[in-house]
Amino acid sequence: MAVSQMTSPTGSTGLPSIHARQRSAQSGSILLLCVLASLLVGLLDLIAGRDVSVLALYVVPVAVAAWFGSLAIGTATAIVAAVIWFFAQVLLPDNPVPGSTEAWNALMRAVVFIFIALTTGLLQSVITYQRRSATTDPVTGLENRAGLLERTAALVNACRHAGRPITIVSVDIRALRDINAAYGQQRGDVVVTLTARALWQVARAEDIVARLDGDQFAIVLPGAGESEARRLADELHTRLSDIAHQAGCSVSHTIAVLHAEQPPLLGDELIHAVEAAVRALRDNPAGPVISRFPTAA
């Protein structure tokens, strides 16, 4: 594995916003499946008759919609489920309950279903928030060290089994502490977010972008060859060169490119190699650093 480096003087003003990576939400599909499930439950309700309760079966699509979809999808499914239950009861033969009473019962069921959707959605949001807080950098919205290690472990394993290479482009903000001391923490955060945005802009859809430490970032590129990684590093170098103008202070970055035709045995070995390379570049920024990974079995 060869490591190449380039140092880029940068610095600039303006506070950017880093948007979290948007995941493709299958909202329409989830709503459709949950509505179909509710219709199926309504059919079972008709078949079972008035003496057999299927309340729990109506609840399942509502909870699934709120958990895997969104609060809006869960609420919509709750209303649909209540309406289906209403018609299932009305269509039963020899119905002794007046229509107005059935309507009131349907309204009460809708309230209960919506409450279940709200409770489920809230629980899912709390769990997601806690998980994201543990794996996300609060300043940039990128993966933090824990998040990167978690995702890289599976990614390295997949690359090894598929015989694909893996590359990491690491970026170090040089003298970030001096920037914080001279201009204040807020200016330092501007430099950090601008650096994060530059990495995000050059990364491919399948790449992982992370903030490893206060002044160190990384992009993990599964399947990227060394030439592609160097091209990405050149583009990143150009974008980082504009940061001094945007942040309004002197900034410099070091970029290290680590490429492995055979990924290491463990994801954390990759991260440790990145950190060692960056430390070596800090001590000797004029020359390349050679790092050897264990050969995959």
Please describe the topology of this protein.
Layout: E1 2-10, H1 27-48, H2 55-69, H3 71-91, H4 99-135, H5 145-162, E2 166-174, H6 176-183, H7 185-202, E3 208-211, E4 216-222, H8 226-240, H9 243-247, E5 251-260, H10 267-283, E6 289-290
Antiparallel strand pairs: 1-5, 1-6, 2-4, 2-5, 3-4
Helix pairs in contact: 1-2, 1-3, 2-3, 2-4, 3-4, 6-7, 7-8
Structure description:
- With 297 residues, the protein is α+β, with helices and mostly antiparallel strands.
- It contains 10 helices and 6 strands.
- It has helices at 27-48, 55-69, 71-91, 99-135, 145-162, 176-183, 185-202, 226-240, 243-247, 267-283, and strands spanning 2-10, 166-174, 208-211, 216-222, 251-260, 289-290.
- It has a 6-stranded antiparallel sheet with strand order 3-4-2-5-1-6, with helices on both faces.
- The model is unreliable at 1-25 and 285-297 (pLDDT under 50).
List keywords for this structure.
single chain, 297 residues, alpha+beta, Alpha-Beta Plaits, 2 domains, six-stranded antiparallel sheet, 6 strands, elongated, disordered N terminus, disordered C terminus
